[in-house]
Amino acid sequence: MDFQRLDPNSLDVILDRTMESINSSKSKLFEIGELSHDECQKVNNQLQLLKEELETVHRLRQERLQMDRVARAELVKISKNFQDYKEPEIRNAYEKASEAQIKLSVSMEKETRLKDQISDLEQRISSLQNTSDKAESFMSQISTVLSYLGGELRQYGEVIEDARRKQEYGLKIIEAQEEERKRLSREIHDGPAQVLANVLLRSQLIERIYEKKGKDEAFKEIKDMKSLIEDALKEVRRLIYDLRPMALDDLGLVPTLLKYLNKVDDRSEATIYFDYDEGIQRLHVRLEAAIFRLVQEAVQNALKHAEATEISVDLKLDGDKIVVTIQDNGIGFDVNVRKDQSFGLIGMKERVGLLNGTIQVQSTPNKGTYILIRIPIHEQEGV
């Protein structure tokens, strides 16, 4: 295709119509997913109630089974010594045995019916969950397509060649964004959302627990719910920190890096060293955020891919530039060979380039990695 002959206005019309159609499909998928999720929650509540009822019926069946055994034993005793019993005694024994057998049959029939209902509900939950998962998967794919249509393809004319060269990198960025959103969505769903759903379900059972087991058990349930809510709050705060450390806005770059690196040092098997100039003051918010993310990416690469046991981070001032170095004793790599793991390094280079800075990467297999970043300070002012 000759990209130079493309009419930008026609391309925009095509893209707008395509995105409108895809967005409509995405909205319908979202509705399907939400309806499936809500229905799954309702069915789960019904399932919990049926399981409790089944437990009660099971206990009643055991009691009636014992009564039936006693009545049958009495009949056997009478049949062996028939001449020793009067007619009213014999009739009464047969009536008791018949009544016990009828009650037992009713209990067994009810227990069987409840088990069938529970099985049906469990199959329904599985089907609803499958529908919800498929809708989520399709929406993730659609979001990737929409991001691509709304971003990369709107570049045309004299930049079309540059867009073509960066197509692979652009797609990887979009996929990484969607994976991060999916990860965050999954963490919220599997963490706080599940806890809150559990709290909601258990809160509906407190009244029943109070009636059946007394206030002590009810208060115990409330205490357990409080613990669950506290755990959910901690998880939400962790997710917020992962998205953007609030300390970066409040305290600045150095204290935030110090807190982050100390946390990494505590949670990993590696030893982290951090050195910085005491004279570093608050920098432009864009520059502070960029440097934090650069250090974060480099440290995570050293831990995840390089298997480093020692990582050194230095933050210095050099005239009108801020200089960042990250060095590790990991397995290193050949800088001339491109691997899947180099995607993070490409992102670092792009971020530094946007700040008119420079980045040098030195690495040799089995000899660790050294990264040197230099970014002008004053060029970020007023941005």
UniProtKB/TrEMBL annotation:
Residue span(s) of domain Histidine kinase: 183-379
Subcellular location: Cytoplasm
Alphabetic keyword roster: ATP-binding, Coiled coil, Cytoplasm, Hydrolase, Kinase, Nucleotide-binding, Protein phosphatase, Transferase, Two-component regulatory system
EC numbers: 2.7.13.3, 3.1.3.-
Catalysis performed (reactions): ATP + protein L-histidine = ADP + protein N-phospho-L-histidine
Gene Ontology MF terms in the entry: ATP binding; phosphoprotein phosphatase activity; phosphorelay sensor kinase activity; protein dimerization activity
CDD domains referenced in this protein's UniProt entry, alphabetically: HATPase_UhpB-NarQ-NarX-like
Coiled coil stretches, renumbered: 111-138
Main location: cytoplasm
InterPro entries, alphabetized: DegS, HATPase_C_sf, HATPase_dom, His_kinase_dom, Sensor_HK_TwoCompSys, Sig_transdc_His_kin_sub3_dim/P, Sig_transdc_His_kinase_DegS
Domain of life: Bacteria
Function: Member of the two-component regulatory system DegS/DegU, which plays an important role in the transition growth phase.
Listed name of the protein: Signal transduction histidine-protein kinase/phosphatase DegS
Lineage of source species: Bacteria, Bacillati, Bacillota, Bacilli, Bacillales
